[in-house]
Specification:
Elements: H1 9-15, H2 17-30, H3 37-50, E1 54-58, H4 61-71, E2 79-83, H5 89-96, E3 100-104, H6 115-121, E4 126-129, H7 141-151, E5 154-158, E6 166-168, E7 174-176, E8 183-187, E9 201-205, H8 208-217, E10 222-224, E11 227-228, H9 239-249, H10 252-270, E12 276-277, E13 292-296, H11 301-310, H12 340-348, E14 349-352, H13 360-373
Parallel strand pairs: 2-3, 2-4, 4-5, 5-8
Antiparallel strand pairs: 1-9, 6-7, 8-9, 10-11, 12-13, 13-14
Bound molecules: pyridoxal-5'-phosphate.
């Protein structure tokens, strides 16, 4: 059996090595390392894939979130609602810009931001919501967009884990993850569902004027070369990364399918295990399984993890500490017990190996081992 890894980038690369190597060589031959060329081609192909008007490539997913907030012209003290059970980036950029992160709890079953919690957290200072489409399925965007419309709030989707996931509204209209709110953000970090071979990210929007502001924000506050109209940042995707991404974009649907197949294998194998609460696939969204995350009930999650490790099976805890209990965000507003669901999840979640290259032998070994330990 091949070694089991959380993410197997090498096997994936080997399948498309010739295409990738040629694409990188083209960049070397062109010596167009920043802007133009491959970056433009990839940007346009991603716009087509996502059916969105503007893709603005940037340096990474965290930059994408920061630039999005900057482009909305929010002022210090403005409140931005985001879930407490997620990666740090959304709360981090809110705080970095002098805005106030307002953390809210999530749904136990989907891991995504709780709609009730959003409504309760709205104050006159609330200006935006950053839902995170955690682990690869869209948050309840219909409800979030309704709330945003009602309270005149911006919505920035954190689609760093969910690129390609499709959402269906009650009127039957569909949209890709990150293309429903005012702005969407994604990351091309190597282990993401569409990952490059370094750092990368992108911002999506259907709003022409917002797109222009976002482009200028990512480019030193510059609409006209060397005319700086406001304080911006420097954040760009380089051509080598764009070349890699443009090759991999062609395979994204296949990669998603592979992840969904692995997830279906897991779901079936664990269906009757009373210690396991399976990830729920919500009704109006597809799930692209950036992570396959179990909740371990009535059994010590850490003990399970240690025993799996002995058997050569890696696993990860995403995320062990909710944001409201992180040192950087500990303040008078929050204490232990404030967000019971997030806190419970942090104690019970376990993510199993999930990537595009898992084979039946590996999946069988993983599921049999888990079921054997959790008897
Ligand atoms: C990966 C990730 C980010 C940050 O992306 P980087 O490219 O690493 O900056 C932000 N939010 C979520 C939910 C992520 O998973």
């Amino acid at each position: 059996m091949r070694e089991i890894q959380m993410v197997d980038l090498r096997s994936q690369y080997e399948r498309i090595k010739t295409e990738i190597d040629n694409a990188i060589q083209e960049v070397l031959n062109s010596c167009t390392f920043i802007k133009g060329g491959k970056v433009t081609t990839f940007q346009q192909n991603l716009e087509t894939y996502l059916n969105v008007k503007h893709v603005i490539p940037v340096g990474n997913g965290t930059d994408a979130l920061q630039i999005s907030l900057m482009a909305l012209g929010l002022k210090p003290g403005d409140e931005v609602i985001t879930p407490t059970f997620t990666f740090i980036a959304s709360a981090e950029v809110i705080a970095l810009l002098g805005l106030t992160p307002v953390l809210v709890d999530v749904d136990y079953d989907t891991f995504n931001i709780s709609i009730d919690a959003i409504e309760k957290a709205i104050t006159p200072k609330t200006k935006a919501i950053i839902p995170v489409h955690l682990f690869g399925q869209n948050a309840n965007m219909e409800a979030i967009l309704d709330i945003a419309r009602k309270h005149h709030l911006f919505v920035i989707e954190d689609a760093c884990q969910s690129i390609g996931a499709e959402y269906t509204f009650s009127d039957g209209k569909t949209a890709r993850s990150g293309c429903m709110g005012n702005i969407g953000c994604t990351s091309f970090f190597p282990s993401k569902n569409l990952g490059c071979y370094g750092d990368g990210g992108a911002i999506f929007t259907n709003d022409d004027s917002l797109a222009e502001t976002i482009r200028a924000t990512a480019n030193h506050g510059m609409y006209v070369r060397y005319h700086h109209d406001f304080v911006g940042v420097n954040s760009r995707l380089d051509s080598i990364q764009a070349a890699v991404l443009d090759v991999k974009l062609k395979y994204l649907d296949k990669y998603i399918q592979n992840r969904q197949n692995a997830a279906a294998f897991y779901q079936k194998a664990f269906a009757n295990n009373s210690h396991i609460r399976l990830p729920l696939i919500a009704q109006n969204t597809t799930h692209v399984f950036h992570q396959y995350t179990l909740k371990i009930e009535d059994f010590d999650r850490n003990r399970l993890q240690a025993k799996l490790k002995e058997k050569g099976i890696p696993s990860m805890v995403y995320y062990p500490i909710p944001l409201h209990l992180q040192k950087a965000y500990k303040d008078r507003r929050y204490t232990i017990g404030d967000f019971p669901i997030a806190e419970k999840l942090s104690d019970t979640v376990l993510s199993l190996p999930m990537h595009t290259e898992l084979d039946i032998e590996q999946l069988t070994y993983i599921t049999e081992s888990v079921n054997q330990i959790l008897k």
